[in-house]
Amino acid sequence: MAKSKFKWMDKTPMNESVHRAVQQAGLFIERRAKQMAPVDLGDLKRSINLVMKTNKNQSRQLGTVGTNIDYAAYQEFGTKFMPAQPYMGPALEEARRLYG
């Protein structure tokens, strides 16, 4: 099963401002990916989401934006039968420019 996801991890000790910063960047990527995702029935667009995780000792914050749709990677990267329709990569690049 092909999955597309983006991971953003801050390597400084976790505090509330780090959590908010990772969450803000992740929500931006989620929103932009949904705006750019190709739509037929809308399943791909609806499946894009942000999941926030903190490790056991509260020292790392991880924001993952992704989808569980099988064909997501084919849409992002294309196949020999269809051109790519990137949505996750461009959203990540925008976030890097704004939050990097």
Which features characterize this protein?
100 residues, alpha+beta, three-stranded antiparallel beta sheet, 44% helix
Report on the structure:
The protein is α+β, with helices and mostly antiparallel strands. The protein is 44% helix and 20% strand. The protein has 4 helices and 3 strands. A 3-stranded antiparallel sheet has the order 1-3-2. A hairpin with a 6-residue loop joins strand 2 and strand 3 (61-67). It is elongated. The model has no long low-confidence stretch (mean pLDDT 86).
Number of helices: 4
Rg, rounded, reads: 14 Å
Structural class by secondary-structure content: alpha+beta
Q: Using DSSP, what is the number of strands?
A: 3
Estimate the mean pLDDT confidence: 86
Strand content: 15-25%
Main beta sheet: 3 strands, antiparallel
Spatial ordering of strands, largest sheet: 1-3-2
The geometry reads as elongated
Unreliable spans are none
Terminal-residue CA separation: 31 Å
The ordered string of helix (H) and strand (E) elements is EHHEEHH
- The portion of residues assigned to helices is 40-55%
Put the structure in a nutshell.
Helix content is 44%, strand content 20%.
Please specify the SSE layout and strand pairing.
Blueprint: E1 4-10, H1 16-36, H2 43-47, E2 49-54, E3 61-67, H3 72-77, H4 88-99
Antiparallel strand pairs: 1-3, 2-3
